[in-house]
Request: fold
Amino acid sequence: MPVRPALSPLIAALPSTVPFVGPEAQQRERGRAFRARIGANESSFGPSPRVIARMESVARDQWMYCDPDNYDLKVAAAAHHHVAVENIVVGEGIDGLLSLVARMYVAPGDAVVTSLGAYPTFNFHIAGVGGRLVTVPYENDRESLDGLLAAVVREKAPLVYLSNPDNPMGSWWEADEVIRFIEALPETTMLVLDEAYGELGPASALPPIDISRPNVIRMRTFSKAYGLAGIRCGYAVAETQVISDFEKIRNHYGVSRMAQIAGVEALADQAYLETVVAQVAAGRRRIADIAEQNGLKPLASATNFVTIDCGHDGAFALKVLQGLLSRDVFIRKPMAPRLDHCIRVSVGLAHELDIFAEELPGALAAARGN
Amino acid sequence: MPVRPALSPLIAALPSTVPFVGPEAQQRERGRAFRARIGANESSFGPSPRVIARMESVARDQWMYCDPDNYDLKVAAAAHHHVAVENIVVGEGIDGLLSLVARMYVAPGDAVVTSLGAYPTFNFHIAGVGGRLVTVPYENDRESLDGLLAAVVREKAPLVYLSNPDNPMGSWWEADEVIRFIEALPETTMLVLDEAYGELGPASALPPIDISRPNVIRMRTFSKAYGLAGIRCGYAVAETQVISDFEKIRNHYGVSRMAQIAGVEALADQAYLETVVAQVAAGRRRIADIAEQNGLKPLASATNFVTIDCGHDGAFALKVLQGLLSRDVFIRKPMAPRLDHCIRVSVGLAHELDIFAEELPGALAAARGN
Reply:
């Protein structure tokens, strides 16, 4: 073997992995496009027409670097949440912010608590800093607040992850339950409260933002309700010192100029957001109807997807997934125990849900071996 | 002091800094816009019209996530450099890739060698992983290949940084000198060869790409000659195992969908690139003329900027810089010893260089106390 530069011991121990295989990769492998792209919880309704027009108009300005301070977007987000600019940090999607949080709060060997089957990219970034993942099973299709808390205390974890509303189950806790969880956490434990789907569920699931508390980081994104998954932009809201600490390591030129401009415009068009939220709610009902018409059980959802209990084990649900993929319907499914009997279907456009309705019976029949 | 989550010891020891203050921040502070934006080595000529048209046409598609594999862009870059797709990794600008390289090859306490006054963002990312920076002074306005090599050997450094052509001096080494440097490096030392300006200088400065060598990572960007600084996209070319190791920690969804599409289109329009390279060369001559007309000494440049020796000490050059800023001309200057007697002026549009020509005499007179 030739002599070569050694990876740092921490990195050498890691596998080379991709947390998610994108639909593009699947299409390349299949050699043909999906007819319905309803697997990645994107918003098929797209961004606001105002956002599209603004992006088109600034395409020619992209020779300029982005503002490394993300200033205009921070101002807009701060106004939106009634906090100060100093309470906002912008990153390359929530994924980018999770990578920073992992580095900030986790030293090699530290325990980090999350739910078994929750966001894989969080786990990927924890592994990347040598953190030790401690997972807590879901209970009744929800992340277990009591279970997470017990694990945090038992493991003296410096960091815990909670998504609310939840992915991949679509479930949620009401704000008072989340607040109870936050207040019970050790003050030395940082909570990442991932609210990527926050705009899509009941407002009652979102605790008021309290930027005096130094152990909660709320994360929001333009990828879901705002219909801008491709721009890679999210932000976190937290106490000023926490936000300032991101300056120690963040990639200051990580968020594109286009993304910053699009984000400002997206926040400004709340009327459009409301129409999307209504369309998503209607789409959830449609997916639930399709599931029930096929004898399956849709779970209640506060997100832009519906998770469907296929009524048998994980192997069966996997066959249903594969049947849909082979019928050119891109969906995903949870893979963890207790969740893996489900498939997950994103709200798409009406014609995409028509295709799902057409193809589900065949996929189910094939899974049953009929 | 309230109890709060502790930062990891590595991060707690770091300052909260911004490697570069952007022109937007300066404009906010000044309360007015610059008349000439010729300080950040952006390409005022902008991207290819084909790229602009393509970006405009896909604005409405940004509801879809980016391809986490950056596949199409990797294919295009691989074809451009006559290497395999497995020899390319795409990141959020060279900055994003530097952050990953720091994490990959540097453990806390490891020595990392660079030139004194070279790219600050590299230093920022090395500090972020607890690396120990060892700096080598420039010699005759060039990075010292002998000095860098001696420091690498002396310090047993796992990582060394070289930019060629160089920023902030605009100088360069011919390919045969770079190859000699590479061949003299210990095989256990990884070289980051930052070729951000590679398209703008003489082709003779670029060694042939050798993807069999496991200790060189070549970095390229769309920010300079391609006129796309705002999209945040760069790529690295290296041996397949090195590229594969990036998968251990990179933010797979870090590069926007728009950036991937723009990058493919930019690579496809090499005819436009040639026109930019010619315009940049003309602009360099213009800046050099202006400098000489004012009794200053322009340095030879293989980049899209000209570094100008102001003929006195660093304090004097700083006054010249401040005089230009106060006259609404955004430029920058090196701050390190041996380099700080210079200012750095990016090639801008003709009207911007006119403004520079108009304002330089006044700035010089003010610096001289006239």
